[in-house]
Amino acid sequence: MEPVVCEKLTKRYGSVVAVQDLDLTVRSGEVYGFLGPNGAGKTTTLRMLLGLVRPTGGRVLLHGRPPGDLTGVGAMIEGPAFYPYLSGRDNLRVLASYAGVDRRRIDVVLDLVDLSGRSRHKYATYSLGMKQRLGVAAALLKDPQLLILDEPTNGLDPAGMADMRALIRRLGAAGSTVLISSHLLGEVEQICDRVGIIAHGRLIEENTVAELRGGAGLRIQATPVEHAASWLRLVLGAPAVSVVDGALDVTVDPARSAEINESLVKAGVSVSELRPRERDLEQVFLELTGGESNGR
Ligand SMILES: Nc1ncnc2c1ncn2[C@@H]1O[C@H](COP(=O)(O)OP(=O)(O)OP(=O)(O)O)[C@@H](O)[C@H]1O
């Protein structure tokens, strides 16, 4: 059973379409980045996943069950709420007793989020990064199979962001399924297996970071370049080959690079460089989202 499946998920607020016909699947064990500019519809989607907002259309299943049944699901959405004058540990104790969670789990989650050393200090004295990590600890109390985090690095300084990234990587490496939303591409590309990009309420791309970055292609420096281009157009078809800034951009599975190299050499071309094409992900993101800035 996939941890998250959305089919044609739609939410309208009056005339505002917050989310439209969203198909999205999060697979077991992956860290999935749900990416989009502010106002794109991320929070609305996550709220529908958790049963906090009723969809106008379409459906959501978490582990095959409708939203509302949050067995095996932990979430941190729109900033955690804690008692400022209680310690981090005591805040977790309160939550654990509400949730019927064994107290021994508190030490485990404090350790996971790297807060054991400060757990007896008052919540009010925590940095924003520590507050966010305590929020993740709270979401982990019930040892969920699926963790949903809405903008977990929002407002954090670079060190706080790095700590949060490291935490999510640890959770992913331990086999948890994690869905995180973000408006910062750089933040998710380093930690996510797959990324879904949403703009104006629609999912416009869903792919692995490697695929997004590489497209499927090779960049080749060869001389004479026009001869190389003609040859590859014969072999691969004209649309697959273009000459950009004196080099060849070739749409082909990068796994075929040795074969392509050999073919060019046989055709009398000298190949000085042949590597998978890397796209500037920031550029891809801006193109896909219509060039909107990340700020409000
Ligand atoms: N309760 C509501 N009533 C009316 N419109 C809403 C409501 N909640 C969200 N919207 C609108 O729906 C759209 C999507 O908002 P949403 O908060 O889901 O975006 P987001 O991608 O999470 O952005 P952010 O990161 O800024 O929260 C926006 O145009 C927003 O103004």
UniProtKB/TrEMBL annotation:
InterPro entries on file: AAA+_ATPase, ABC_transporter-like_ATP-bd, ABC_transporter-like_CS, P-loop_NTPase
Highest taxon listed in the record's lineage: Bacteria
GO molecular function terms noted in the UniProt entry: ATP binding
Keyword entries, A-Z: ATP-binding, Nucleotide-binding, Transport
Annotated CDD domains: ABC_BcrA_bacitracin_resist (cd03268)
Gene3D superfamilies associated with the record: P-loop containing nucleotide triphosphate hydrolases (3.40.50.300)
Domain ABC transporter stretches: 4-225
Family: Belongs to the ABC transporter superfamily.
Name under which the protein is recorded: ABC transporter ATP-binding protein
Lineage: Bacteria, Bacillati, Actinomycetota, Actinomycetes, Micromonosporales
